[in-house]
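User: hey, got a sec? need peptidylglycine monooxygenase folded
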Amino acid sequence: MIPYKLLSIIFGFSSLLLLTTSYETSNNLNILMPDVVASHIDDYLCASFEMDKEKATYITAFNPAATSKDAHHVLLFGCTEPGSKEKIWNCGEMANSDESSEAKHEVGPTCASGSTIIYAWAMDAEKTELPKDVAFKIGGSTPIKYLVLQVHYANIDKFKAGKTDRSGLVLTTSSLPTPKTAGVLLLATDGEMAPHSLELFEVACKIRQDIIMHPFAFRTHAHKLGLVNSGYRVRGKNDDQEWTEIGRRSPQLPQMFYPIEKDVAIQQGDYVAAVCTMLNTNSHIVRIGPTGNDEMCNFYMMYWVDGDQLLNEDVCSSSGPPRYYFGRDRHLNVDKIPEDAFHIPPPPNGAAPGGNLQGGHHMMMQHKEQSHKRRFHYESID
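Assistant: Yep! Here you go:
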């Protein structure tokens, strides 16, 4: 028999080993702005963080370290090469405007090569944890050699008061491989909407790669005029076509990644589609653009695959209204679009953000009957 004291030593050592292993394989990685100073509202600033090139790191959770008082949104990109060798650089579409000409930061893209979207945050969204056995794989032999943090600044009062900013993300990481790899597909549009109008911004792309994706979370993004964004898997042709909802949410709610309630596997030959319903109450045209006074129609889909082969093309885009609508795409049957596509679902706590969009059925009828001309004056909505 093994003496009791020896057993105690063995079990004690085993417990210590387990604790040590757990500590070594689960860590926090701070991806934060290095005390930056923004010069203008709507500045986009970027900072890069080099990853371990010898071994891979696995991201299992994203914990925001930002507030909507300062940041309009925070994006995390994976890059093979960052857009600048500088510690901080101006990476926004406004970088070459006259207003930004006095900025002290070098101008450059987010990534010089190998750009991929990993995470997005806005409106004080909460922590996002990935499902069990799912992680974003970065560093090592992957094309992601750097993480690049992009912050779109909505307010510069703190900078005028002499303060700096450390907005960003705290990532939960592990050195242990996972059997499933996470990725993000972004559906986004260009386009514009007329004064005093209700408009649909639509985008769809065919999955041509031999891949099976399992969406598990989605995020909607628009600015002040967005009412509801929804995403769909479109399968089949003509009268047999089926539109299955991936997710639907008001972009006026905290813009976190919300869990997808059911398994909607997407495979080669399927289409992914998204529609944003917007109400322009202004007396001027509003266009898709980078500032808070412009608009955006974005639908983010976070998915996992068995193994580590992700989508080669992770952005699906369209020219938006008035040039692109579903009805002009011969592969899409607008008669099969679910009638609740334009209705704002209640948020998780049951309190609707400004109420549901009235006249959703009216919009559906207009969608089917006038897909070639899509400009709805909101005064006429029931």
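Quick note: The domain at 183-380 is CATH 2.60.120.230 (Jelly Rolls). Let me know if you need anything else on peptidylglycine monooxygenase.
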